[in-house]
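[step 3/7] fold_predict: job queued, chain A
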Amino acid sequence: MANTAVVDSAQSMLDDLRGRYLTFNIGEVSYGLELYHVIEIIGMQPITKVPNLPDYIKGITNLRGRVVPIIDVRLKFGQPERDYDDKTCIIVTTIDDMNVGLIVDEVSDVITLDEQASAPPPGFGAASADRYLSSIAQVGDRVVMNIDIVKFFQNDLPQ
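[step 4/7] structure written:
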């Protein structure tokens, strides 16, 4: 009976997070990540480089005893590299029981979107960043491009 309560509680927490996104910026562009994939936001950490990886995989860091791979979102999207500053941070995400850190220029806020506020991405081709998107939403005076985290990581994580 107690196990059922735990499952019900976990499902209730997931339901509370549905439609909520953590937004962040890469340059002037706003992106969103489904909040239930976000573990925490941390400042920049020492990163150990790992040889023979794509440039956008910056390496690994030790986060409270767990080795976490770190990906620079700016570089993954083909944007020019820039120096990290006091707004640069790492969003620690989880996918398939693995934590992965995403370096972003700046975290913005948490938004709630209903399905009517979002539209599918336009589809500019396999080489464009939109292949990682789940939807695009108008939020006030800005457009937020919501990342499909499974597609975003599909070539970077073990299958």
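[step 5/7] annotate
The two ends are 35 Å apart (CA to CA).
The chain has three helices and eleven strands.
exit 0
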